[in-house]
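Aggregate trends can hide what the representation actually does to any particular protein. In the encoding step, the backbone of a single protein was reduced to a row of integers, each denoting a local shape. The record that follows shows the chain in one-letter code together with its fold in token form.

***
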Amino acid sequence: MFGMAAVTRVSGCLCTASSLLLRGRPSSPSLLKPAFIFYSSRLLSSRTMDNLLINDSKYAWLKELGLSSHNYGVYYGKNWCGSGELVTSYCPANNQPIAQVTQGNEADYEHAIAATKEAWNVWADIPAPQRGEIVRQIGEALRKKIELLGKLESLEMGKILPEGIGEVQEFVDIADYAVGLSRMFAGHVFPSERKGHVLLEQWNPLGTVGIITAFNFPVAVYGWNASIAMVTGNTILWKGAPSTPLTSIATTKIIQSVFEANNLPGAISSLVCGGADVGTLMAKDERINLMSFTGSTEVGKKVALMVHERFGKCLLELGGNNALIVNEDADLDMVVRSALFACAGTAGQRCTTTRRLILHEKVYDEVVQKLVKAYAQLPIGDPIEPGVLYGPMHSQQGVKLYLKTISDALNQGGKIEYGGKQLERPGNFVEPTIITGLAHNADVVMRETFAPIVYVLKCKSVDEAIVWNNEVKQGLTSSIFTKDLGNIFKWLGPKGSDCGIVNVNIPTSGAEIGGAFGGEKHTGGGRESGSDAWKQYMRRSTCTINYSKELPLAQGIKFE
């Protein structure tokens, strides 16, 4: 189930990647999804064990995050443990093994969820501002490790170091935001139609929030959920992506230190590293009051069905086939700089990456020419090294998806303006790619491909561009570059972009934490981070209090 047709080797046997549920941000729903290759350490030779990067003096800094050659991937307030599969995490920049992790199994999950539910009895009794103080301390602990944790993310996920550090900063920022929220979230008092009565609403925590995150943002997305969930009085059970277990473990160890320092149960924020078995258990478990899932649209739909079957609550952050529109009056230098980041940043592996670049016919040739020149100057290399702006894809399966998609685009009439090839070097490096010549509704354009490929389309007007923006199944983020106020407000209005994020004169990617993050349609409808996203982590009660000696009924009903 949770089908991905790619084949993965685990514990010496071949199985479909569908058996490794919930592994990454969305990819094309009609193509093979990026499946991440794990090799059981039971299959690794002693020589390979010696060659783990963590044992190389160059990577000794990993041990400052509490990591070792072998790590346990389960934590629920006692010692670290794990009885599941023994897997190896690989560096996408060179495909060398970093370290090993024993994941959790069903028994580990049962212990973890029981401890997490028990911890809620303590956590829910703590006043919200005091919970906010704990989250503030978590933010401070992250600040102290921001360089190291960002470096680990760069090593294990493959994004460039400034982005890795920036992602940890995003967790710090949302922790700061949550601290303020802990003194502000509130219901309302409404006028009652009955004399001597008060009508109000009360917000209470849901209980336990399950969080499943993706490989491409292994820290920030967890931070969005965890910070808000904790200050609103919930406990947490987290399953990170199977291909970034070291980042999940290191992040949890930082949080663990804060709870221990405050003599609080560590199971307030539990972790179970695992695959399909753990993900399925979480989705079906009635003890999880809210299931927050970040990943592909296809897998998200299956998660939602399992959660809704038990009448649970679901928060989905799924795919995005995002468009950046350029009108004829746009500042083209700003356009090119924005498109370079939005299309090629994180090697095209953001849910907010620009997949479609819709250019007005009057500026089409100039923008394509300038963008090709910018791509040619993009520094490619080891993402940890200074000055590098473009690193590897996260997995070998992602490279295969990239190559297959380019083949499909060419077969459908596309023309490669730049890129289109795998780079001949160690690691999962491919060229960032610009493709022109395709119809706006070509099959390959209409599907999201989680790779650094952008399709450039030529339009005649903003109205036509808006129609094209809205015709795909997903509705995550969008942007228009124009100086025309009429077009700006048309874009923002009811007949404009149908996405959850609607930008003007900035890229499609790079959202701030103060606004709600999420999208419409097949993106799932969930909202995380700022604004009133906190409401999704709480239950609302409408309360009527009679402080009189009379018993009037609403609507003036007499029952005598």
Summary: The chain has two domains: 1-318+530-560, 322-504. The CA atoms of residues 122 and 265 lie 8 Å apart.
